[in-house]
Amino acid sequence: MVDAGMISEAEAEHHPDSNVITRAIGFEDDPQPDVWLIPLRAGIRLLICSDGLTKELRDDWIRMHVTAGFSAEATAQALLDAALDAGGRDNVTLIVLDLHEA
């Protein structure tokens, strides 16, 4: 609905259908996952997460912790703890990846 311009992102946060799952792998014969091509190189850190994280923590707060220089494991734990402490109203799923030369 946000992508279609029907409601704003702010309105989506409190919309009655905000937690409705619209797509899931394993329930359709031909799932259509979202795919992005991202140029990768050694030294990049990636955060892959569910909306359970981003609904609880502000983007600037997440960015600050992801770029603070702590290990991937410590960063992931800090983000998880913060999301749960903020209320954890949805499942919080995340992975922090540090890319290195092969």
Q: State the domain count.
A: 1
Would you give the CATH topology? Phosphatase 2c, domain 1
CATH superfamily annotation: PPM-type phosphatase domain
Q: What is the CATH class?
A: Alpha Beta
Main-sheet strand order equals 1-2
Q: How widely separated are the two ends?
A: 41 Å
Supply the key terms:
single chain; 102 residues; alpha+beta; Phosphatase 2c, domain 1; 2 strands; PPM-type_phosphatase-like_dom; PPM-type-like_dom_sf
Walk me through the structure:
With 102 residues, this protein is of the alpha+beta class. The chain has a single domain, classed as PPM-type phosphatase domain (Phosphatase 2c, domain 1, 4-Layer Sandwich), CATH 3.60.40. It has 4 helices and 2 strands. It has a two-stranded antiparallel ribbon. The protein is globular and about 40 Å long. The N and C termini lie far apart (41 Å). 8% of the residues are buried. The model has no long low-confidence stretch (mean pLDDT 86). Residues 1-99 form the PPM-type phosphatase domain. InterPro entries: PPM-type-like_dom_sf, PPM-type_phosphatase-like_dom.
